[in-house]
Write a structure and sequence with these properties.
By secondary structure, the protein is mostly helical. The chain has two domains: about 35 residues, no CATH class; about 120 residues, AhpD-like. Helices cover about 55% and strands about 0% of the residues. Helix 4 packs parallel to helix 7 and helix 4 runs parallel beside helix 9. The chain is globular and about 50 Å long. The C terminus is likely disordered. It holds the Pfam family CMD. InterPro entries: AhpD-like, CMD-like. One of its GO terms (molecular function) is peroxiredoxin activity.
């Protein structure tokens, strides 16, 4: 059980409607049920969502999210994203494993993906990009994409803080760090 008890069904109508909009018919995640115990936290969390069709491809978005969560040691969110989005994003099992292991050092990535993952790693390590790291990223991504990358890194670092801070139990159908061929960073 997480450190803050999640909502149990039946949910208030407005909460149920928001769960339905986010989950598209699937049961709400423990993270969502826990955040929804605070109307403000749930509203602010949903307002920050970056899962809509943005300037990055689904694959690029998921590489940023998966690597950010893995570097933060957040098996909960990494596992949810891998389970839901890895296949639609075209990530192979070896690529998924690399998001939780070798990261940008893996030979699996294109030059653009390598620059993307290097930026995620730099942001995780020091909350900044130096001029060379920014130039490497900018060589492959335009202004809107760079901003999206920065926002995704920050948002999912926050998600990791919440999930790890609450010690959320792993979702039953989510991927596990231990199911990859490499260990999490």
């Amino acid at each position: 059980m997480p450190r803050i008890a999640p909502l149990d069904p039946p949910y208030p109508a407005e909460i149920q409607a928001s769960f339905d909009a986010v989950m598209q018919g699937a049961p709400p995640l423990m993270l969502f049920r826990t955040l929804a115990t605070s109307e403000r936290a749930w509203r602010k969390f949903r307002a920050g969502s970056l899962l809509d069709r943005g300037p990055l491809s689904l694959r690029e978005r998921e590489l940023v999210i998966d690597r950010t969560c893995a570097l933060a040691g957040c098996e909960y969110e990494w596992g949810v994203h891998v389970a839901i989005f890895a296949e639609p994003a075209g990530l192979t099992p070896d690529e998924v494993a690399a998001t939780a292991g070798a990261g940008s050092l893996s030979p699996l990535w294109s030059p653009a993906e390598r620059a993307l993952l290097q930026a995620v790693e730099a942001l995780n390590a020091g909350a900044r990009l130096d001029d060379d790291q920014f130039a490497d990223l900018r060589a492959h991504y335009d202004d809107a994409q760079v901003l999206e990358i920065l926002l995704l890194c920050g948002f999912y670092r926050m998600v990791a803080y919440v999930a790890n801070g609450l010690d959320l139990p792993l979702e039953a159908d989510a991927a596990r760090f231990s199911s990859t061929s490499r260990s999490a960073a």
